[in-house]
Each structure stands twice: as structure tokens, then as C-alpha cells.
Design a protein that fits this description.
The structure is a homotetramer of 345-residue chains.
Chain A: E1 2-6, H1 11-21, E2 27-32, H2 41-44, E3 56-57, H3 61-67, E4 70-73, H4 80-89, E5 93-96, H5 106-113, H6 120-123, E6 126-128, H7 135-139, E7 143-145, H8 149-163, E8 173-178, H9 193-196, E9 201-203, H10 210-222, E10 229-234, E11 241-248, H11 255-265, E12 272-274, E13 292-299, E14 304-311, H12 315-329
Parallel strand pairs in A: 1-2, 1-4, 2-3, 4-5, 5-7, 6-7, 8-10, 12-13
Antiparallel strand pairs in A: 8-11, 9-10, 11-14, 13-14
Helix pairs in contact in A: 1-12, 8-10
């Protein structure tokens, strides 16, 4: 299968290349990078020397449609909504790592992204690609909106409790923490090393674009209209997301009860690992891999449950899940090309 | 005023020495360090060379009582409860950075610390030294239980809302994050550099000794029996604590309303700084200083308030607040010896 | 091929398991870990959950000899010299990641390691496993002394210039910098996070065990008796070694001349990448991979050459090179099981 | 004494403000910051809230001359050479943290800085402000060229050996390592957190602007024409410089001999601390302070000396030394305003 990457110089793209390099069925035909046309991937990422010497091209939709079977968008917000429709019209399968097609309602997109939404007729064709939860839909999709990094960690962490109705969805609070690579490769004072090293920052409180994405799925799965309290913090580390999720239990369940339920829920999910009682995952324990590791505490004193869910934001939170979705789409083993272990320590 | 430090080789002690070095009225007479008797401070902490060449001694209560006016305990749990009573009997003022005299109820101490509590008759003589909240009690105290690092950040962050009854105390969730120096100087796999660098860990969920300390004050100030949900995370940085505090608003108050109330509440507190609307403090912005910086968001969508409270865990969370309490005890200006700015970046 | 790992709880062992997991011809039969007998690998390394659930055993030489074809030693100094001889006698192939069999002269070992050397008759059977330089010897070896991390980076960086006689070997100065994982998993104050984070330390100046190892090869390849100035620094990062190597040029050669010579020298070495003029490798650019990346500057002002050589200390500096040597021994493609890209950023 | 800072938003300026805040004789009258005119210091640096609420101004040389006694330049290269001459004409004392007046020869400046040098008639009036070495010249100076961070660490580390003629100056190699704050506050891909964290980079090999500055002083003090080999590396930490300096001994001197000589050399230098035999300084041990700590090894095997010299690049390498020079100029105690201890850990 011939694939292309649009948006070839960001961290999402470079991680896609890492996994495609290990993938037996996919070959990388084209890398589109407007700002770097003519340069080789290894000029921009020296760690790719001798591996990806492919030259980056300008976007040409006709060429894309002619030469490749599948297009990955690893673009900033606002790009794929302009380009994807013509690819959809031509029947090119797309996996979109950006947020442009994740929100079903254009008005919600416009409120949070502060720009025009994609054409609703195309929006309707997109499938939300949270692999473990929407496997069947993904297998039949033509356009996959790959989930955001925070929603992936948060939703995989809390959905089993929602679906079992063991928690009150209106009480969910998600305190999320991310490594700095989540902010991308564009430089800013916030991500300047001297300002971020040995430091801890809260940011975009109450304003993060991933809030409506999480709410959309929580509402769908709980059947309730609800708003979620979701906070984001920048951690002085490169990769990794941890979502610490709090919710009121509606039934009396011990930590063991909940762990058993999660293990059953994710029985056929090779990338989700549930930790034993008293054991909570650290982000480094999934570093570089497609795992989502989950630890659980049911606190009898407070009658609340605390869920710790960790992923590598660039893998399960972006490129890894995109490859997983490509596998699902093609009925390949979900793990194809993704069977690398976490790099620890 | 002649002071002694008991527990001379930990981070609390070494920070006390940094501030005593700048203090015009206090001189360091004795450093007690059981395990390092005979060594100089600078043998254990080379950064003190030419500054603190004082030799460390064995504990001798009689000597202490004879030679010093005030004793700082910078000891692990379980030490001061054995030693302090005889000093109290002799009328030696003490500021205790450990947790031994913070909890009023011996049974609560015994549940959380898993060891015998101090003698209740002595326990009753201790004053909880949260400087900004209990200034008058501190000024008249003879034994000060210096607050824990997490409780300091958490309580300074939430108490104004409690006292105003603008939040429902039963809904408080505190998601706390700490730099690794909070774990002290004893080595462990958890704080081993290769395991902690570029990593993020949740730990002691539902079990942290600071939970009953926070609850004790929340109960006292709210007049309600309540349990608090409090989680702790280890951040790959040396210093700093951030408490992200969530609570349900009981009244409709905007972010500006709450900021104004906090500014009034802390009008005479030189070490508490309230950030403007939309501005949230980062831990590095108080690094090395005695400040507690607070940012506030009232979220209209969720009717919850989020408070971000940051301190340097070794300063306002330990040695700095201890010096502040020594100043209060002696009716010196609260800032004496503590007027260093944050070291930024 | 059935393999065993002796010393199963260190970082070398856990990296071996990462690569064996990807290796098509090697299966892990036994993990020997004296201190953790009965535990599973994933008990000690939670990131291995669901992957390596193998139980760790006590050492039993007879069992080893009966059940496996190849033994990896990932043990501290002083262990393999006791155990390996009986395996050698039984004809079991070994790859030893420790330093016990690297030094040909027992007296040199004893001076630097401050303990008795291995029996000379066994020492003579060991082959120094610097894969790119001693490929043929390795292919015919029965006992491979896998090189140290610093020697690997240093020697791959300077040997082409030595063999061409373009530098004066007596003038070589190696200023080496390492990530903290190089110090292993045993905790110490030096590698305590609060002491090492945001810090930079020089250590073991003039005393590092890798000095005689580097000298042995420099002497062999240059034919000169010489002592090398070699300094080691601990960098606040987890993985990576950089050797900055200085030497006086004996001939006038431009940077381009030297780059061309290196490219020819390493033409058949898939894991050595020579950077273009003006481009110097960073350690993160080989993170998690078996590459050694080399940058070169010939400075006309000083008539000195500066070589920057970087590796991942746990991969090319330990487990990766061990797998590469296993491949060479078996006449498998050198890259088998090692074709993972650097994890960047 | 009334002072002004020109270049008010960089790290040099913000450190000057930290020390001026503690200084009994200097008051900050004006902060000039072209790009931020009208904003307060605390708008740009929130950690300064309630401390430095001073508003930043446009440059107006007449105002400067009228209102202040001393001007600090904390500007990028190329700024002070344009502005300073008119201040010199007006008799305003200046301390220039930039490189514009450090090099005596305009042609050397132009080669390394790739721009026109300052007018030679003004260049001649500048005094190189390496406090410990040129104390008398500084006391009589009117324009002080404050040394660069790398030259400060390097020269304080090696000059005693040069002046004693115990080393051959032509053999000096300086392998220098710096925290990332040395690159300033302007963002770049090189100092982007995700690219620099957990990473180690060599940069500007053979091209750094501090090379001619070091050579100028080495030549002056040794009386020899020489070129120095000087390499720079970026360390994943915020502050700190370590210079590892190698040179051939011309006489047989033990480590103890050299330590004794250094102690005598720096007997009256309160900010230089010589470590005992076998003890090497780490950068964190001077963090936030004006110390330069030096460790020494005389290696009998190689007949080379290795000197480890560490400073905080923003303090002794910039703002701290500038304050020290202001003190010398005014015949105040050298330590005035600078008596803060290192912040450790």
C-alpha cells in the first residue's frame, strides 16, 4: 500500500515515518511539506540520515490521488478541512491527525477553534478513530479523524466506567499533564528550554480545543448532556501524557472490582494494559510505544474513583494510533508495524 | 538570637542555613546530625564551602537547652516526638519542620503515620504554623508545627474560598504535583535519576500523610466534617509544588470577583501574590523564594472554580516558612532574611 | 537460537530483552537474577507487562549449559570472571557486557578494577567485540568481551584517523559526557534526581575503568605505547554518550578530506553515519538505536582535529552492540533485530 | 547611586534586577527595552510581580545622561558600540555585558562578529572586567567590558597556571559546556524544549565569538602568540558553565602543589573557591550565586593537568560579575549585594 504524508516536518510526521519504516505492507511514496519543498527529510531531521532520504514536495492533489492509496494528514488546524474534500471526492482514504474533522457539530468547532469549520457534508463522512472503542466503524471508514492526544488518554481511561454506569458522568474532572512535544515543533517562549526546564506550567485552562472533543464522546457514550472540567499542564519532559481522572462512584465498587471490569473491557485490546492494585503507570513506561497503561484507585473514604491513564502523546496520541487505524482499515493485525517496546529507562 | 538545627544533612536543614546566613538577628550555633557527627556542613554540601564550615554534633538536649534560644527540627517523621518534650519542659522554643506535631488527634496520626503519636499533653502545646492564616497564634506560640509542603500550597490556595463560603468544601479535589526534592535526600529507585528524568509518576494515591493535615484545617475552617480527594504526582524537576484545586461554586462569582476577594484576603501577606485574570503561575516563578503565587479561573460552563497555587516546596513549603514563623514569633518584620527574589530562569 | 541473560535486572538486561523481542532467530529461555529469583521481569520493570512475563531464576551453570546456545552476561564487574570459565569449558558461547574479559593483561585489570583478574588462560580466549573494527575476529569468536560504552564511542570516533596515521596518537584527549543511565540501576547520591537534575558533574577524573580499555586498543592500532587523557562527565539526561575527541593532525587535511576518509572507512558499517561538513550529531539523534553518528572538524587555526562521536550508551554502548555481535557470530545480517530508528524527539 | 539597564528583557537584565534589589547603594532608575516600551517588567517576567513594577522606556541618551550615574548594557552584539560612545563623551560610566568592547583589535572583532567594530578611539577606553585578575584596572575604569561567560570560567580556571608558567600555553584545550540560558531568551529550534531536553549538542565548533576573547587574555598573560582549541556544548540544564581545561605541564607538580598555588593566587578573591584534592565542582553547587569553583587534577600518567572550573553563566558569567565590577569601581566591598548562597539542590 502506497501512502503519503501531508505536513512532513512536524513531530507527527516524523513518528509516522518511524513506524512506516517498520511496516511490512506500507511504503512511503510522498512527503508533502510546503515550507521545505526540495529538501530531504534528513536535512530537517538528521536522525533520519541514510533512512529517509526522500525529498519533500509541494502539495498537488492530482498527484496524490494518482500515486497513493492512503493519505495521512499531520497538519496544523485549518489545513485538512481545505484539502481533504477534493481527496474524498476522488475516493482517496485519509487518516487525519489534525482536529479538523473530529467535531461533528460545525458550531462547536467554530467556537473552540475560532475559525470556519469544514463543510458539513464532508464532516459527516468522517469517523472518529479511537481504535479500541470504535473498531468496527473504523474498519468501514473512508475518512478517519484521528483523536487528539489528551482525548485518547482521557477517554480510554474513563469510558469503561461510563459504559458500566458506575460513575456519575457529570462529576468527571480530568487533570491532564503533557510532555512538551505536544506543543509541536514551532518555537515559542512557552516551550523555550530555559523557561520550561525544571518548571511546571498550567495553560489554556478552560480553553483547550480538546475539551469539546472529550465532551462529544462522553455525551455520546453516557447519553447525557454534560460539561467536563479539563485542565492541562506542561511537564518538563519531552513525551508522555498522564490524565488523572476523578469521578464520583454511583455504586460501591472496590479497586479490584474496577480493575477486573477494565480487564474484561479491554480483553481484546492489545495496546491497553491494566495495572494491578496499588500499581500506577508512569509515562516513561510507555515511551515510544503505542500502549495506554491504566491504574485505578477506588477510595472508600471519599467514594470517588481515581484513574491514571498514560500514553506517549506522539504515538498512541498521534502517529501510532494512526498506524493502528490504517491496520484496522485494511484488516491487518492491529499491531503490524507497532510492536516496538517502550524505551525504558 | 542563637539557633540550632536538628537533622542537619537534609534539604530542609540546608535551606535553613541559606536563609540564616542572610538573617541579621539569628546566628547558627549548633547543627545536630547523628549520622555525620564530626564532619563539617561543607563536607556534606560542597556548595557551602567557605560559608558554613561549622562542625556537626551529636544530639545533647542539655547542651541545646543551655546554648540556644530556638531549635529547628528538620528531622524525618518520628524523631521530634521523642526529643521535643524535654525541650518543651525546659522552655526552649521549637519550630518543627516534621509532621510529628501537626495533627491534633493522636489516633489520626497513628492511622496515617503508622507509628505511635507524640504524648497528647505535648501535642496540645503545638501551634500549626501556616503563617498567613494563623499569624496571631504563631506570635504567641512556644512550639510551632511547621506545615507540610503540600498543605501549604493547597490551603493557601483554597482557604479564602472556604472562609467566604463560596465553594462547597465537600467537593474539593486537589491534584498536586511536586518536584523530586520533596522526597528528601535518601536515595530510592523512585527518585533515581534514570528512572525519574523525562518521566511523570503518580504515587501514594489516597495514602499520603498530608491528607489528614489538609483535612484537619479544611474541617476547622469550614466547620464541616469532610474528606478530601488529594493526589500526588512526581514531576521531573528539582523544586516546586503546584496544587491544582477544583471545587463547585455555591454562588455565581466571576474570575474577577474571586481575584478581588483573594487580593483583599491576602492584603497584608507579603509572600502571597495573586495573578491577574488569565495568568497562571509556573513553579519556576517562585523558585528559591518564599512566595506563594495563585491563579484563579471561574469556569461558567462547569460552575467550578480552578485554583492554581505554586510554592517552592523547600522554601515556603519548609525552611522559608519556618524562618517566617521565627520572625513572627519574635515580632520581627515577616520578610527578614527572606527577601530574595525567585531565581528565574 | 536459545539465549539466556545473566544479570536480569539491570538496564543492560532490559535493553537486551527489548531487542530479543524483535529478533526473528533468538528466543529468550532464561533470565538469571540472583536478587530477584521467583519474580517476573514485569514485576521489576512494569513497562514489560504482557510482554516479558518470564520468571527469573537462580544461576545454575548446568541448566544454562543444557538449555541454551548463548549466554549474555549483563552483570556488574567481578561476576563473569567467576562464572564464565565453566561455561567456556562446556563450549557455551558467551557475550559478556561486563568489563571482566576486555583487558588482555591481568595486571592492568587488577590496577584499574582493584580486584583479581580472570584466569589468564580464559582471558586469552576472549575476543574484544568492537563490531565495526573486529568483524572477522568476532565471526570466529567463542567468548566476546563486549566493549564499554565510552570506549565504543571514543574508538569508533578516532580509529580511522589512527589507522591512516593522520594524527599523533600521543596527543589524543577525549572529553566524554554520558547520560546517567550509564551508572546503572543501583541508587547513589550522585545519581539521585534532586542532586543530578539541572546539574553537570565531572567524576572519576583519571580513574575511570574505561581508560585502560581505550589505551589497549589505541596502542594496538597505532603500534605505540601511549597514555590517553580521558575525562568523564555526567549529563542530566537519561541516555546518550558524546565523546569530543581532540588530536594534533600530522598532515594537512581539510574537514572534507577527513569526512571522505571516514565515509570510505565505514562504507560497510550500517550503524555508523558520518555527518556532512558543519553538521555535528546530538545524542538524541541516536536515542534508542544502535547508530554511532560522527561529526568532524579540522581546524586550520590550531591544526587540530575535533571529532564528535555519539551513541546511545545502552544500545551501541551495551545491549545493541551485543545483539550485533550475536548476529555476526551467527552470520546473520548485522542489522537483524536492530532496525529500529532513533526515537526523536 | 542611580543606575539604568539598557536591554531590559533579556536574562542578563533580569538577573541584574535581582541583585540590584538586594543592593544597599544602587537604585534602579530606568529600564530601557526597545521592544517592550510601556510595559512593566513584571508583565514580561511574572516572577517580578510586586517587586519590579517599573515601566520600560525607549532609549533616550540625553535622559540617561541626566538621570543616572551608571548604565548597564545587557544588549545583543552590535548595540552598545552604537550607543556607548555618546555616553562616554558625556562621562557616564558604563558596564557593558555584551561583547562589543571586549576585543582590543577591531579586525579581530570584525572577523569573529562579522560586523563593523566599535570606533577604535572608544575601544581603547574600555577595560576588560575580569574582576579577580584586573581589579586595579577596574577600580580606575570608566567603561567596563564585562567578560563573556565562557571566558570567565575558562580564564579563572587556567590563568594561575599560565602566570606561574607551569603549563605550556600552546597546548591548552578547553572543552566547555553550558546550560541553555546562555543562548538567551530568543527562541530557536536549537533551544526548543522538545529538541534540547534529554539531549546533548555540540555547536559552533571552531567558530564561537568567545574564542578570540580567551586568546586575547591568554596571549597577554603568557606573552605568547597562540591559538586555543575551544569547543562548546549545550547541556540540558538551565544555568551553569563547566570548562574542562587540559594542558601539558612544563614542570612536575602534584595535584596538591597546584591546589596550594591556586589557593594563594585567589587568597583575596572571595568568589573563587578551590576544591580539595579529589573533589570536583558541579555546576549546581554555584547555582544562582557569584562563585567560581575550581577543581584540579595533575595526572602523573599523562603529565597533563585537568582543571574543572564552574560558574553560573548568568551570575559570575554576566550580571553578578557586572555588580562585582560596579562594587570595585565604587570602592564598595566586592560582595555587596552578591552575598546570596547557591540555591542547592
Amino acid at each position: 500500500m502506497k501512502v503519503a504524508i501531508v505536513g512532513g516536518t512536524g513531530y507527527g510526521a516524523v513518528e509516522l515515518m518511524r513506524f512506516i519504516n517498520n511496516h511490512p505492507y506500507a511504503t512511503l511514496e510522498l512527503v508533502i511539506a510546503h515550507s521545505q519543498t526540495g529538501k530531504k527529510v534528513s536535512d530537517v531531521y538528521p536522525h533520519m540520515q541514510d533512512v529517509w532520504e526522500i525529498q519533500m514536495d509541494e502539495l498537488n492533489v492530482g498527484e496524490l490521488q494518482k500515486n497513493v492509496d492512503l493519505v495521512f494528514f499531520a497538519t496544523p488546524p485549518g489545513v485538512s478541512k481545505e484539502i481533504a474534500p477534493s481527496l474524498m471526492d476522488q475516493g482517496v482514504t485519509c487518516i487525519d491527525l489534525s482536529g479538523d474533522f473530529r467535531l461533528e457539530r460545525p458550531d462547536v468547532y467554530e467556537t473552540w477553534y475560532e475559525t470556519t469549520a469544514a463543510d458539513p457534508s464532508y464532516l459527516r463522512k468522517a469517523t472518529y478513530g479511537l481504535s479500541e472503542i470504535y473498531k468496527e466503524e473504523i474498519q468501514n471508514a473512508s475518512y478517519i479523524a484521528n483523536p487528539g492526544c489528551y482525548p485518547t488518554a482521557s477517554l480510554l481511561g474513563i469510558l469503561p466506567l461510563i459504559q458500566q454506569k458506575w460513575v456519575d458522568p457529570a462529576t468527571i474532572i480530568i487533570d491532564a499533564k503533557s510532555g512538551v512535544s505536544g506543543a509541536g515543533r514551532s518555537t515559542s517562549l512557552m516551550t523555550h528550554f530555559a523557561e520550561m526546564n525544571d518548571n511546571l506550567k498550567a495553560y489554556k485552562l478552560g480553553k483547550h480545543k480538546h475539551i469539546p472533543e472529550i465532551e462529544q464522546i462522553l455525551q455520546k457514550e453516557s447519553g447525557q448532556l454534560l460539561n467536563v472540567t479539563f485542565s492541562t499542564h506542561l511537564i518538563p519532559m519531552t513525551r508522555g501524557i498522564m490524565a488523572t481522572i476523578y469521578s464520583d462512584l454511583t455504586v460501591q465498587k472496590s479497586t479490584e472490582d474496577i480493575i477486573n471490569m477494565y480487564e474484561a473491557f479491554y480483553e481484546h485490546a492489545p495496546f491497553v494494559r491494566i495495572r494491578a492494585n496499588g500499581n500506577y503507570p508512569a509515562t516513561k513506561e510507555v515511551y515510544g510505544s503505542n500502549y495506554c497503561d491504566i491504574g485505578i484507585l477506588s477510595d472508600e473514604r471519599t467514594r470517588k474513583v481515581t484513574v491514571i491513564s498514560v500514553i506517549d502523546n506522539l504515538v498512541k496520541g498521534a502517529a501510532g494510533q494512526a498506524i493502528q487505524n490504517m491496520n484496522l482499515l485494511n484488516n491487518w493485525d492491529e499491531k503490524t508495524g507497532l510492536d516496538v517496546l517502550p524505551v525504558y529507562p
